[in-house]
């Protein structure tokens, strides 16, 4: 996979880490812009320069997908720019605290049905909105229910 690099940039001589993405051409051919180093049961991944354009977006998706799979991530969502999702466990329940931080409002896609703990509304699986600078607390299926559904 290949993509141009843009915006900020740091390049690495991979000594203790393994170079995953390397510069081709220019003044620094062979230096790494993406490295991985094993740490405990996981890895430290350093991105030193931003892949740009459609190719860059595809490359970043590939990298995130690779490390999410390696880490055993089972629940994912899409979230609009400027909005964050903070998953939390409360007993057997899985809660998502959703906050819009850029003042433009946002959307998040729920992977399953849930309950809005602030309004009491029952929510269907799919996209929900968040007001500008707003927040929502969503109770999803219990962790056990979700895992059973995913493993089917």
Per CATH, what is the topology of the largest domain? Immunoglobulin-like
Number of helices: 2
- Which CATH architecture of the largest domain would you pick? Sandwich
Strand arrangement in the largest pleated sheet: 6-7-12-9-10
Helix content: 10-25%
CATH class of the largest domain: Mainly Beta
CATH superfamily of the largest domain: Golgi alpha-mannosidase II
Q: What gross morphology would you assign?
A: elongated
The unreliable regions are none
Number of domains: 2
String of helices and strands: EEEEEHEEEEEEEH
Strand % is: 35-45%
Largest sheet: 5 strands, antiparallel
Tell me the distance between the termini: 33 Å
Q: Based on DSSP secondary structure assignment, what is the total number of beta strands?
A: 12
Structural class: alpha+beta
Q: Provide the residue-averaged pLDDT.
A: 90
Radius of gyration: 19 Å
Pfam families: Glyco_hydro_42C
InterPro entries: Beta_galactosidase_C, Class_I_gatase-like, Glyco_hydro_b
GO molecular function: beta-galactosidase activity
Domain Beta-galactosidase C-terminal: 82-139
Summary tags:
152 residues, 2 domains, three-stranded antiparallel β-sheet, 2 helices, elongated, beta-galactosidase activity
Summarize, please.
Helix content is 18%, strand content 43%. It has 152 residues and is an alpha+beta fold. The chain has 2 domains: 5-70, no CATH class; 83-151, Immunoglobulin-like, CATH 2.60.40.1180.
């Amino acid at each position: 996979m290949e993509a141009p690099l843009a915006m900020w940039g740091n390049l690495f001589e991979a000594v203790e880490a393994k170079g995953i993405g390397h510069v081709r051409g220019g003044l620094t051919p062979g230096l790494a812009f993406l490295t991985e180093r094993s740490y405990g049961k996981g890895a430290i991944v350093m991105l030193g320069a931003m892949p740009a354009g459609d190719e860059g977006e595809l490359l970043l998706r590939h990298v995130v997908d690779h490390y999410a799979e390696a880490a055993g991530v089972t629940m994912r969502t899409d979230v609009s720019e400027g909005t964050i999702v903070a998953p939390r466990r409360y007993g057997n329940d899985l809660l998502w605290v959703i906050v819009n931080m850029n003042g433009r409002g946002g959307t998040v896609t729920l992977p399953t049905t849930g309950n809005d703990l602030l309004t009491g509304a029952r929510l269907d699986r799919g996209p929900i909105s968040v007001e500008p600078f707003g927040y929502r607390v969503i109770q999803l299926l219990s962790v056990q229910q979700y895992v059973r559904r995913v493993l089917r």
